[in-house]
Amino acid sequence: MRGISKRFDHKKANDGVDFDLYKGEIVSLLGENGSGKTTLMNMLAGLYFPDEGKIFVGGREVAINSPAGATALGIGMVHQHFKLVDVFTAWENIVLGIEDKYDVPAAKEKISQICDRYGFVVDPDKKIYNMTVSEKQTVEIVKVIFRGADILILDEPTAVLTPQECERLFEVMRNMKQDGKSIIIITHKLNEVMAISDRVVILRRGRYVGQLETARTNPQEMTDMMVGRAVKLDIERPEPVNPAKRLVIKDINVTDVEGVRKVKNVSFYMNSGEILGIAGISGSGQKELLEAIAGIQKTDSGSVKYIDENGNETELIGMHPRDIRELGVALSFVPEDRLGMGLVGNMNISENMMLRTFGESHKWFTDREKPRKVAENVVDVLEVSTPGLDTPVRRLSGGNIQKILVGREISSNPKVLLTAYAVRGLDINSSYKIYDLINEQKKKGVAVLFVGEDLDVLMQISDKIMVLCDGEVSDIVDAKKVTKNEIGFLMTSLEGAKASGQ
Amino acid sequence: MLGFLAFIPRAVAQGIPLLFGCTGEIVTEKSGNLNLGLPGVMYVGAISGVIGSFFYENSVGAGEVNAALAILIPLMCSIVGSLIMGLIYSFLVVTFRANQNVTGLAMTTFGVGFGNFFGGSLIKLAKTDLPSISLSKTSMVFRSQLPFAKSLGVIGEIFFSYGFLAYTAVIIALIVAYVFKKTRVGLNLRAVGENPATADAAGINVTKYKYLATCIGCVIAGLGGLYYVMDYACGIWSNDAFGDRGWLAIALVIFTLWKSDLGIFASILFGGLYILYLYIPTGMEHMEFKELYKMIPYVVTLVVLIFTSMRNRREDQPPQSLGLNYFREER
């Protein structure tokens, strides 16, 4: 790719980017949120058409007008938001749109050959909506290979995977590399860049900054290039000051709409000025637990007691979510699809800030000044990359959307802050900004509940870690003493926890 | 028992326009276009056929009509009429990405108005005293039955007493069901309706599929209007006589969970409910009950909508992107 540029509404998403990929190598594409990585790759995949610049494949100049055109050139992309039809089975998704004979047994045969060759595990007759994130991703990759792709683009493939699933994905990627396929992987996690790729290409604000041989670099150098200045890669963990019990949760049970018990007899407490990390495979009841505390989710039994600075106790179960929030319990949950909860895609940044505060004024007309200031502040402090405060949130890149969500919750000056996946899909610089913000809250005496995916981070930022397994508390451990392996063990088995505890 | 046997053919005759409408709307909705213009399309399909047949009958004068022409002319006119409606809808919704609900409702208003306007004009031309046009010669051809139907007694009455369009409706419904279940085109079309971004990324021409599905759907639905005038109403067009069958057809789509083979039975059932009031004895002093009985299909529709919305099976849900327009570069 030579001199590629692409504009959205006067904002240059890519500006004269050069990018090379050779046969049989794995290249990481690194950059902050909104630095134009996905946009660049979408142009290779035929979803966008570049405004300027040329693309060469195998030495020949090509124009990629459509995804079908990309497929014909042997380019396939696995998007961050999977492009799968939920009510279809795996094989239906894989053969979708291919214009040759409609031969189901032959298609299934070819799928199983691909699986054997690279080590995928796919049940071709399973419906997509019954699959885990990891299985869906496998289907996506098989789909791309099925179409004869030699160049694979993976957009943040590990963002939603457990450590074990990541390992399996990397294994498959190495197999494909040995088979002569070229892979581009977009990621934020530097340890993954180090682990998997041969070369790393770095973008900053839509421009090409440079490339490094992975073998001859280190995370610090990559981060500095990505951000454009030196960044500290340590998360501080200030000692809690005067911890006092702020929230006491006792024997909470939650059943979801389908009648599945998601949270089982969970009891714990949160101290002011302390960060309680929650680890667990996604879907182990984290979401339900947080929602139960925030009053959005009905509980079957149990109690949640809020204790204020003066020692007055309030029972939160049965209270209206708005009243709970007024007590100072703020929830910022970043769902897998980011826009699902908390933000309204078609509304602009300051209007989204208003969603939290419009009830406070009891005048006839809403106050638009205050939310606008909050919005300005969040955009400023978190360096949200946006054309302006009036841009619909939907138009921003995923990481920027998230900054706005987390920024809003923190700006409400909570007493208890519940965050889930606050840095999901965020680049390193923004992630550290968010860690700093959370630590700032901690120093102010806020009790923080931090649900995270990255165990390394979880172990660095939390004071205590509660491990959930299938809706039950596996154990609550001291973050300073525990090892990553122990947590991984606790995450997957309750029995194992008891055994290792002896 | 005899009363019931006589009831069945009438229920079927009532159900066929619904079946055409339902099948057409299923094809359209599977592409993600919620065409609320269906009642209008069916009106246009009917009046276009009427216009064609009116001029043909006039040109023949008092002579005999040619059976083939008497069928082909209204049929082609009807197809062209509803095809144009389908094109207008697709053009607005797919190319210009207009709001589907608003466009659909406008198409219905337009179609009904179009039908009544030209219906009224033809009535003027026909210079009759009645507020309707009678195309009895064409209708005779449309209603001609298989020669052996009469000789088969009850069975002939139930299965073979209909004009050819009724069988066409059933065959189309079966073909549509087969295409969706067993062919690549069906798979691709379903993908377009479920998740156009996925279909696009898989190399399917989303715009083409949406246009084709909407237009084919409209043509099928338009035939329902044609059947109604030429067969069911014995060739008599009077303004607004078609009534709200178009809306019932849309309700049937939901009732059948987007399955056109189920639609065959469902439309006959609804056809029966539609005329049930004629068969419930009320006596002379309580005629008001008849009006209540006329509500039955609508009440059943409401109940069915409640039940289907309570169901949780993913396969029974509407196409996921139904009612949403697709734009590739939107973020």
Beta content of chain B comes to under 5%
Poorly predicted segments of chain A: 496-502
Largest sheet of chain B: 2 strands, antiparallel
Mean pLDDT, all residues of chain A: 80
CATH class of chain B: Mainly Alpha
Look at the helices and sheets of chain A and give the structural class: alpha/beta
The DSSP helix count of chain A reads: 17
Number of helices of chain B: 14
- Rounded radius of gyration of chain A (Å): 24 Å
Percent range for β-strand residues of chain A: 15-25%
The biggest beta sheet of chain A reads: 6 strands, mixed
Q: Mind telling me the CATH class of the largest domain in chain A?
A: Alpha Beta
List how many beta strands of chain A DSSP finds. Answer: 20
Comma- or semicolon-separated keywords:
heterodimer, A: 502 residues, alpha/beta, Rossmann fold, 2 domains, six-stranded mixed sheet, 17 helices, 34% helix, disordered C terminus, B: 331 residues, mainly alpha, ABC transporter involved in vitamin B12 uptake, BtuC, two-stranded antiparallel sheet, 14 helices, 2 strands, 1% strand
